[in-house]
Specification:
homotrimer; 353 residues; alpha+beta; Rieske Iron-sulfur Protein; Naphthalene 1,2-dioxygenase Alpha Subunit, Chain A, domain 1; 2 domains; seven-stranded antiparallel β-sheet; 7 helices; 17 strands
Chain lengths: 353, 353, 353
């Protein structure tokens, strides 16, 4: 059964850097409404998107330099969430504050920590160093998905779906039948498929310029709770001195609500880095291919939701080793957090004002 | 209180023959998603529209001759629902199967059995022999209805509504005040209204060519759980040798979800069978008149749903004898099935994979 | 926590007079569907909008002089809700009746009593005598709001929001910081703000023709359960002989369902009464300014509903004295009705017909 809950003490991608500006922006992340903006010095800020006073979304207010003024009664918050002004009264009580969230900006992404702020450690960000590598070119996008995040987690660890879900782009008949090597640790899973002397899929020909029979490498690595790095390589079959065409896809999956998800995808390629046409092919192709994954997950969510609170029987196959391992990791991380005191849930308990 | 549940061990119309083809088609019936298609030899096939593996709708896959390949990981099912191929593995376990449903195609309709397959007996199909009578002409259609099926069951057994709901087509002032004879058995109800020397309703004039005062016969026969045959006849009042104009309407009501319904209507006439203009009048008129019934049922469902889980007081009238009898029959059939072991519900229990 | 329930033994505005005609009209009020129409003599009539027989909305029927005929089976109701005709049967049982509601028409409004009919006392209507004053001009409208009614109750008692929510129309920087005097009784709250020598807000300049520094008076008076009268006055600062510009806004808040509301606003002015341009400014300006309040309430409802059944922490400010007083009054009136026998709820209990 696909879980719907994710651990909060983890980094998630809140937004692509270019989305966050001096315009107030609202986005739900893990069932919290979040207001995002930039300070005058450019640093991103994230606060819960409801005023402590009467639940007005702060994103409907306005910026006063770095501070955020509620658009209803003017309560003004500093970037750390503490109120600094309450119109009509002199005293600002310490309880007059909203939650602010630790952020890190790196690799063209704004990363958010949804759990205990004191546990937010930038060194725990998932590896994404290639996004900061100037010799590569990265094309990315955000796909909204009306389905639970775990569906994508499992999709991305099962490479056999390429043959059937993406036959016209990155799939080919051979993939599904080739063996997979699955390795794993406490918080990661890696599925490797060496595909020697296989047909070059149509989309690779377009963006890489290779064709015919190729040796294709594909490594899908999951890092808990919801990051996937797919290393893809292709070279003419049988070896030789031809250049390796290689790209890395980073998939960042951010739960929005229980059954909806923000899906950030970023393709960083080492080939044709200055070719704007290849940029356009990946912009369109990424949206198309990863959009097929979104379509599949949404179709499945539609079936699951129709059976709730029951759940249809499911049967596991040989290819499910990796996905099921990832499922267990997510479930274990969620269970571990449940035993600890939860600051987030305490903040949403009922107030009888 | 209008029931929402229907017996599963019964035939229902799944589709009109012309709807089912080599294109995969998806339709919810009695809370099951169903994938419908035709084999190469033309025979219709119905399977539950979710893969046993990860709930992907099979209707998003593709046909491989007669077999159905899931569009996610390529698991391939034969027409009986048994998997015959699982890519990436040699062994296909017997549990790798989906539910297939017994079908019968007759009278231009594809009939489906939603209950225990071994109980599916084609001789138990409700009578529809006139649909296969070449001397008649049948015009039909499918109306989707956002209301529970039982609302139509009761609508069709109460002929007094013609005066008020269909005043411009098949209703007339006289109908509501004329006596009804109601007969019934264990699984059927029949309401008969003889209307001698009454005004010819406007729509009869159009399609039959009769007018003025007529002797009008109307018999509405309900066969459990959701079939209605309305025999309608009209001839100039006072007897004489004029030809009888007569048509039969078969109403097939298929629950989609608890409060939505597929409404198939088929008008088979014995008059003007080769007149394309009369075909067009019935195509439009059927959609119009039966659409008024759908509108009424949807309006009522809107009221009922607003009061849930409570239910507004209702008061029975003399005209409700037939409808209430049908209501009791449906409730009794549902209750009888509840006491028997239910294969369908067993299949949807939670799997902790 | 914002309450969602309101007392039923109270007058509410059902409609503006011009909305009610010989065309049957349907409107939900306090979770009851209501059918409204006028008798031939012009008097308004209100009945529950579902037939006692099978829940068909009566608003889908037709008028027979003053009587209302159900559009399904023709049961015909007199204006007091008693059935006078059941087609197909001679006897009309006394139980064949629907609820009718006491109405009063005054000030261009149709007022409805949703509780015990015998308690409906026209002298208990909230004061609105200025609506019948021919020397004034009234402009009004109805704004539908997808939020609970209490959000508007509290909005209208907190004048400090003018600065932040309506900065371009009736707000100005000074308002939020000026002291408020709050008075109250058992069923009313009054908040007074004297604003001497303040900037004239932009919209006042347009409609009143005043500008520069003004002495501005603002009194917001709440009468339980959901009426607000805002007295607004403006004159050039520092006194002198200039004429006072003064208008009265009546806000009538009618719960539709638990979290949706009909918001009637009526601005009665004593200045420029014959100026059609000022009429147009108020028609547009009222919709605009009060629409900003609706937007704020809907945004808050969106946040609250996302947290249900939990409720986010809220913190009270100095300005909340008036709003919280109104909240307590509404809660107390609802609690008082709960202890009394409730005719309305008895009528919606489940009938096992």
């Amino acid at each position: 059964m696909y879980p719907v809950e994710f651990p909060r003490n983890a980094w998630y991608v809140a937004a692509m850097s270019q989305e966050v500006s001096r315009e107030l922006m609202s986005r739900w992340i893990m069932d919290d409404p979040i207001c995002l903006y930039r300070r005058l010095d450019g640093a991103p800020v994230a606060m819960v998107d409801r005023c402590i006073h009467r639940q007005m979304p702060l994103s409907k207010g306005r910026l006063r330099e770095d501070k955020l003024e509620c658009g209803y009664h003017g309560i003004t918050y500093d970037t750390d969430g503490r109120a600094v002004r309450i119109p009509s009264q002199d005293f600002v009580p310490p309880a007059c504050r909203v939650r602010s969230y630790p952020l890190v900006e790196s690799g063209g992404l704004v990363w958010i920590w949804m759990g205990e702020p004191e546990m937010a450690d930038p060194s725990a960000l998932p590896d994404h160093h290639w996004l900061n590598d100037a010799s590569r070119k990265t094309i990315g996008g955000l796909l909204p998905m009306k389905a639970r995040a775990q569906l994508l987690n499992e999709n991305l660890l099962d490479l056999s779906h390429l043959t059937f879900l993406h036959p016209d782009s990155i799939g080919s008949e051979a993939i599904a039948e080739l063996p997979v090597t699955t390795e794993f640790g406490d918080t990661w899973v890696r599925a490797t498929r060496e595909m020697n002397d296989v047909d070059c899929p149509p989309f690779f020909t377009k963006v890489m310029g290779v064709s015919g029979r190729i040796d294709r490498g594909q490594v899908a690595a999951f890092t808990a709770p919801s990051f996937h790095v797919t290393h893809v390589s292709a070279k003419p079959a049988g070896g030789g001195h031809e250049e390796l065409c290689e790209h890395v896809v980073l998939h960042c999956i951010t739960p929005e609500r229980r059954t909806s998800t923000h899906y950030f995808w970023l393709v960083s390629r080492a080939y044709n880095v200055d070719d704007a046409e290849v940029d356009a092919l990946w912009t369109h192709g990424g949206r198309n291919v990863f959009g097929q994954d979104v379509d599949a997950c949404e179709a499945i969510e539609g079936v699951i939701s129709a059976y709730e609170p029951s759940y249809p029987v499911e049967l596991n196959m040989k290819v499910d080793g990796g996905p099921l391992r990832a499922r267990r990791i997510v479930e274990r991380l969620v269970a571990a957090e449940r035993t600890a005191p939860d600051q987030a849930s305490a903040e949403t308990s009922t107030s009888q004002a």
